[in-house]
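Reviewer 2 asked us to include a model.

Predict the structure of this chain.
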Amino acid sequence: MARVLLFGPLRDLAGWRERQIEADSLSALRLALAAEDADLGEAIGGPGVQVAIDQAVVRGDAALTAGSEVAFLPPMSGG
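Predicted model (structure tokens):
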């Protein structure tokens, strides 16, 4: 199971910060989250949302292992 972390408005939208979810790839994880909560599924696919797997930002799909940590990071602003 992957350890899934949500931050900022993503956490507020979902109503949770951390969960364990069974998925073998990032795309499967996104589908599982969207099936459970359509609004969250749309939000994590939105512009500016980044994904870090085991503290490294990834683009596109990636394989997950039983101990993977997947963090969804909302768009950042500031200067």
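Residues 48 and 78 are 14 Å apart (CA to CA). Strands lie at 2-6, 18-21, 50-53, 56-58, 69-73. We have added this to the supplementary material.
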